[in-house]
Amino acid sequence: MANNPLRYIDPSGHRYLSAQLAELEFVIDHAMELTSKSDPEYWATRQYLGVKFQPIFNDNNNNQFKYLFGQLTQTSPYPNSSDNAMNAKNQLLDAYDQWQYGPLMAAAAGSMGAVGGGSKGTGIAVHGNSLKSTKPTDVYVVREVKTGKVMRYGETTQGHKVRGQQHARRFFNLGIEVETMLLKGGLSKTNAKVLETRYIKTHEKVFGKKPPYNKSYH
User: Fold this and answer.
1) CB atoms within 10 A of CB 78
2) CA angle 198, 199, 204 (to 5 degrees)
3) pTM for the whole thing?
4) How far is CA 89 from CA 69, 81, 83, 84, 106, in A?
5) Which of 72, 112, 163, 186 could staple 88 via S-S, CB 3.0–4.6 A?
6) What are phi and psi of 132, to 5 degrees?
7) What is the pLDDT of residues 124-173, one digit of tens each?
């Protein structure tokens, strides 16, 4: 089980990364390597994940999970392929994310309008780094291109592409080629900082340390 549990980043950035989701993805990635029903670990992993997904799908005999697990491990009686396996992985992660964090994110979205409104009409410019900023904020990750290693998480009101260009120049001077990927866009400044901190703490919990260019949680 040597796969990096944070190696895969959802391209749409809509999942709410947590230690629980990172751990679940780690097990799912491992399950994708178990392509033989004669392997005892196949059944142990199916049982472990089945317990996780029983309350999520809440169907008779956990049939939806069993179907997706067959697709995931390419042991299904239906057509199997690497694309179908990846699709099954994404469906499982999306289902868990919606079940676990959907209500929390909906509540956070409902409170966004109240954040940062105190500066209106004052004639005082609000800096983009201020929690009073009303500019939409992006949360992003910077990865080393060669290895996929997370170098840092961050948040910005400049737009992740502009910030990514700045990081590219900075790391180029260090002899490192990096890419910047959007994790979640259009957040309030406060919610973006909360999510940035959650990403850093999840990385620290999984790998035992913060990303090398996150010296703090902000």
Assistant:
1) 8
2) 95
3) 0.48
4) 8, 12, 10, 9, 24
5) 72
6) -85, -5
7) 444 455 556 778 999 999 999 988 888 999 999 999 999 999 999 999 99
